[in-house]
Amino acid sequence: MTDVLAGDLYQMQDLLTDDERVVVERLRAFLRAEVAPIANDCWTRAEFPAHLVKRYADLGIAGHPHSSLLSGWIALEMAHTDPSMATFFGVHSGLAMGSVAACGSPEQQERWLPPMAAFDQIGAFALTEPDGGSDVAAGLRTTARRDGDAWVLNGAKRWIGNGTFADLIVVWARDEADNQVKGFVVRGDNPGFAATKIEDKIALRIVQNADITLTDCRVSESDRLANAHSFKDTATILRQTRSGVAWQAVGVMLAAYEIALRYAGEREQFGRPIGSFQLVQDLLVRMLGNATAALGMVVRLAQLQDAGQYRDEHSALAKAYCTTRMREVVGWARELLAGNGIVLGYDIGRFVADSEALYSYEGTREINTLIVGRAVTGLSAFV
């Protein structure tokens, strides 16, 4: 690959095929030219660059039969430039499109996936509720009641990425008849559906998170995901996208390392670049070590996915480990930049803030730890 990431010390990019490298290089060029120059400004104003959405369709990164390695690398590249845009894409292509691909009937897949792949229709994924996050599997309160050839949804959702402007929202609700969680595709202009932007966030400010209310919201039976019968089906989606967050965390680490490395070569104190000091080199090597170990983990995770050997504990461990190491790396990078590290124009401050959201969503460290703990001990420690 002619253009490489400075932090890829073990040349993991070389594992991509020639065709995959073309996709990555095209995406990287787009992100550097179109997203990087406006990221800080959009972050400050908490505004989403909607004018870029259709441009993603030309990159061939959604709705195509990518290998897990390429899909992961796409998430890495997007987070390396801006975690908010990585989150937008992950919600649309991973959670929303993934729900339709995994749980939709062939007719539903044909109806929704092509326009979503073309970014003509944007997706969102509504699972988390105001009073339910980690316990959502057992505590889901949004209800669905069958009424003739339709369903009536009532409830509330919170932290719904893309929720303020999405065309298609995958809503998970508990069927009053059998108490099982089922999936419904709700349109953004559906009567009874309302979305309000969550204001004053300190992380992922570009992402348009919404509070959603469903008040006697009627959804046709044809818009119920035909193969979503219980929360086990929902968990299948989360297993896939959780690995994507691990890849995003690696992208953030590599970005933080590169920012710090560049600064260490440019910033002078005591008559020489601070990169020549032992303590600064120690910080850089610790950052690089975390990023390299995490990258190796997610690359192996992708191999397991493609081999059909992928289990819940694999993605749970990767998400918990990579986001924890990410927190360390962005903190060390901020430390290396000293006071300049809290100035948005030096870039690292945005990654420090955004990393807090990545650390929490798609399962907290504690919840993912319990998933892995159950797998290795055979004993459940869930309440």
From TrEMBL:
Gene3D superfamilies given in the database record: Acyl-CoA dehydrogenase/oxidase, N-terminal domain (1.10.540.10), Butyryl-CoA Dehydrogenase, subunit A, domain 2 (2.40.110.10), Butyryl-CoA Dehydrogenase, subunit A, domain 3 (1.20.140.10)
Single Gene Ontology BP annotation: fatty acid beta-oxidation
An example molecular function term from Gene Ontology annotations: flavin adenine dinucleotide binding
Residue ranges of domain Acyl-CoA dehydrogenase/oxidase C-terminal in the record: 236-376
Domain Acyl-CoA oxidase/dehydrogenase middle: start-end pairs: 124-217
Cofactor: FAD
Domain Acyl-CoA dehydrogenase/oxidase N-terminal as annotated: residue spans: 17-118
InterPro entries: ACX4-like (IPR045008), Acyl-CoA_DH_CS (IPR006089), Acyl-CoA_Oxase/DH_mid-dom (IPR006091), Acyl-CoA_Oxase/DH_mid-dom_sf (IPR046373), AcylCo_DH-like_C (IPR036250), AcylCo_DH/oxidase_C (IPR009075), AcylCoA_DH/ox_N (IPR013786), AcylCoA_DH/ox_N_sf (IPR037069)
Keywords from the UniProt entry: FAD, Flavoprotein, Oxidoreductase
PANTHER family documented for this protein: ACYL-COA DEHYDROGENASE (PTHR43188:SF1), ACYL-COENZYME A OXIDASE (PTHR43188)
Similarity-based family: Belongs to the acyl-CoA dehydrogenase family.
Name the record gives this protein: Glutaryl-CoA dehydrogenase
Organism of provenance: Mangrovihabitans endophyticus
